[in-house]
Specification:
Elements: H1 17-32, H2 39-50, E1 55-58, H3 65-74, E2 76-77, E3 80-84, H4 92-95, E4 96-101, E5 106-111, E6 118-122, H5 129-132, H6 136-141, E7 143-146, E8 149-152, E9 158-163, H7 176-180, E10 184-186, H8 193-205, E11 216-217, H9 218-229, H10 235-248, E12 254-256, H11 260-276, H12 284-295, E13 300-301, H13 303-307, H14 312-322
Parallel strand pairs: 1-9, 1-10, 2-11, 3-6, 6-9
Antiparallel strand pairs: 4-5, 7-8, 12-13
Helix pairs in contact: 1-2, 1-9, 2-11, 10-11, 11-12, 12-14
Length: 333
């Protein structure tokens, strides 16, 4: 177990941005022992973690989606649960349920796997939309309501879900409300030849996943997240985020644009990106670097756009490229 009692940020001392970058670097190094040659993917996963968000990892089978989720979870000494989503999974299997105790003649609540700091929802789109909806309240409000009683979830709380492309057999598309609760969606992709060769060498003797050790704990992570919340977002950058998200609702190729929740998540992700860069303020480049993973999965394209094989990611990239960018200003300037 990682000892943190002598470190700042644990016993009431504020955490500095240098410490945020240091912790993120150690987590990234840990994860990259398993996910070789994908620094951008690891960066976006860390941004989502520090932004207090939830991560959706979408790609074809076998590229390391679950390994990414497990490596990130093992890098933090906290409670972790993993749920394999299947067509026969029920909502109560995730949230928990009330069980009748014959000895006390009363119903007792048995918490489900969602009562953990990090919940790995593996192949989330193999379960029915009814079961997927069990995560809606958890992800948005960090609580669970069962039989009229509400139970708070752990802090920090993060859902890392993996899913296969919807055109594959045995999958259900995620409902719009479910997708909107994920802060970012990333794709791992195939490794290049050098990275794949390195992976073969690494896995020849022992799976590196079993060699990972935590580099922080939940208590320290909460202090680092609090430091990210204090990153300054100037009025010009806030306006830029609002205009960027608002424009997605007016694109001719989009029938459903990004929601106000997307604006909030975009600002939080930009804060986390600025903190990783060691800055106490957000610049437009921070917003642009997270715009595609934060916004693209929330857009529903028109049938004409889909027939033309246009992607939501390409639309967001084009939008970012043509949106007027405010001049960056330091806080207090």
């Amino acid at each position: 177990m990682t000892t943190t009692s002598s470190r700042p940020g644990v016993d009431g001392d504020p955490v500095g941005l240098a410490e945020v970058a240091d912790l993120a670097g150690r987590i990234a190094t840990n994860v990259q022992r398993v996910i070789v040659g994908k620094p951008e993917v690891v960066r976006l996963a860390l941004v989502t973690l520090l932004a207090e968000g939830h991560l959706l990892v979408e790609d074809v089978p076998g590229v390391g989606k679950t390994s990414l989720a497990k490596a990130l979870a093992r890098s933090i000494d906290c409670s972790v649960s993993r749920v394999q989503f299947t067509p026969d999974l029920l909502p109560g299997d995730i949230t928990g349920m009330s069980i009748y105790n014959r000895q006390t003649t009363e119903f007792e609540f048995r918490p489900g796997p969602v009562f953990a700091n990090i919940v790995i929802a593996d192949e989330i789109n193999r379960a029915s939309p009814k079961t997927q909806s069990a995560l809606l309240e958890c992800m948005a409000e960090h609580q669970v309501t069962v039989d009229g009683a509400t139970y708070a979830l752990a802090n920090p709380f993060m859902v890392i879900a993996t899913q296969n492309p919807v055109e594959m057999d045995g999958t259900y598309p995620l409902p719009e409300a479910q997708r909107d609760r994920f802060t970012a969606r990333i794709s791992v992709g195939y490794p290049d030849a050098a990275a794949e060769l390195a992976m073969v060498d690494e896995h020849a003797m022992q799976d590196p996943m079993y060699m990972l050790r935590p580099v922080t704990d939940a208590r320290r992570l909460c202090a680092v997240i609090e430091a990210v919340r204090r990153v300054h977002v100037g009025p010009e950058v806030r306006q830029y985020c609002v205009e960027l998200v608002g424009t997605t609702r007016r694109l001719p190729d989009v029938r459903l644009g990004a929601s106000p929740r997307a604006t909030l998540q975009l600002v939080r992700a930009a804060r986390a990106q600025a903190a990783l860069a060691g800055r106490g303020f957000v610049v437009p480049d921070d917003v642009q670097s997270v715009a595609v993973p934060v916004l693209a999965h929330r857009l529903l394209l028109t049938p004409e756009a889909q027939a033309s094989r246009r992607s939501a990611s390409d639309l967001v990239r084009t939008l970012v490229g043509r949106q007027a960018v405010p001049a960056p200003a330091r806080p207090g300037a």
